[in-house]
Structure formats: structure tokens, C-alpha cells
Write a structure and sequence with these properties.
3 strands, 4 helices, three-stranded mixed beta sheet, binds zinc ion, mainly alpha
Length: 127
């Protein structure tokens, strides 16, 4: 079934969601949790503007999360370093926290890209 990821309704036309590593990861997690529905993901024509806005917000959130994560890692590494007490466990947990912040945004706010007009396939078809 082709399902719109914005309104969750079945769609006939619309834009296809690009399969990327994050989509595959989310699918795998859902399959493990037993909540996968194996639908084909689309965005229906009337939801494309709303989706584009969401995608833009997601990209912004991801950048903010990366910056916060990086700063936090830096603080968690630099402060113990200044105190002369940086150990491997401190270093690893600082990196872990940074990665976790970025992953949390990806997992809860993930908005996949749609396949763009003028992609490889379309270019070939036009020729
Ligand atoms: Zn829709």
C-alpha cells in the first residue's frame, strides 16, 4: 500500500520518499518492535508544501542538535582535561552523549526527503 507520511492516507500519485539509511534503520527498529507495516512511503500532492516545510525544520533541528552535541562533548572533554582528570571512560561517555543527542532528533523528528524532480531516472527518460 502507498501511504502518505503526512496524512497517513492511501495515495495514488504524489511524490515518493527517498529510501535512505535513516529510513532503513527506522524500518529495522519497527520490525524488531513488531510495529512495521511495510507500506510504500509517499507524500500526497496536497501535503507536499507542508512536508517541504517539515523537512526544512528537521534539517534546522539536526544542525542545532549537532552543534549542541559537539559543544557538550567539547565541554565534557575540556573541563576534565583542565582539571587534569580526563580518563577513557569520561571521553567515551562524552562522545556517547553527543551522538545520543543527534540520534534522538533523528529518531523522533525524522522527516525524509522526497525524490527530487530531475533525478537520474527522469533525466534519462527525457532524452
Ligand atoms: Zn497526505
Amino acid at each position: 500500500m502507498r501511504v502518505c507520511i503526512v496524512c497517513q492516507k492511501e495515495v495514488k500519485g504524489g511524490a515518493r520518499i527517498r529510501e535512505d539509511p535513516a529510513i532503513r534503520l527506522i524500518r529495522t527498529v519497527k520490525r524488531l518492535l513488531g510495529i512495521a507495516r511495510n507500506n510504500e512511503l509517499y507524500v500526497c500532492a496536497q501535503d507536499i508544501p507542508a512536508h517541504a516545510q517539515r523537512r526544512k525544520n528537521f534539517e534546522k533541528n539536526l544542525i542545532i542538535a549537532s552543534v549542541i552535541g559537539a559543544l557538550l562533548v567539547l565541554v565534557l572533554i575540556v573541563l576534565p582535561l583542565l582539571a587534569g582528570r580526563l580518563d577513557v571512560i569520561g571521553l567515551v561517555s562524552a562522545l556517547f552523549i553527543g551522538v545520543l543527542i543527534v540520534l534522538a532528533v533523528v529518531f523522533f523528528r525524522y522527516t525524509p526527503a522526497i525524490e527530487q524532480e530531475g533525478s537520474e531516472k527522469k533525466k534519462k527518460r527525457r532524452k
